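tool=predict chain=A
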Amino acid sequence: MNAVLADLDSHLRTLYASLAPNTAVIIFTGHSDPRRMVSLNARKSVFETALKGGKKLEDLEKDTWWSTADGRELEEEAEIAKRGLLFVGIKP
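tool=predict ok
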């Protein structure tokens, strides 16, 4: 177990031990890994900036073009990035 996880485990154990019986414990992680969404968004931005800057589609490298399929993938990745984990428990 790496040091960060060991430290988190220690803090959670201390918190849990200090709770009164029948206390609810709720831990929410926030969101999933947004790196793929950020990467796609950056690629979209480069493409749109190039077109707004006066470049023609033919002047751009084919691998930098933005398609509707890319847009759908970005939407899917945005939805995935919003997901998080929720842990709920009651101390006996």
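The first helix runs from residue 3 to 18. The two ends are 27 Å apart (CA to CA).
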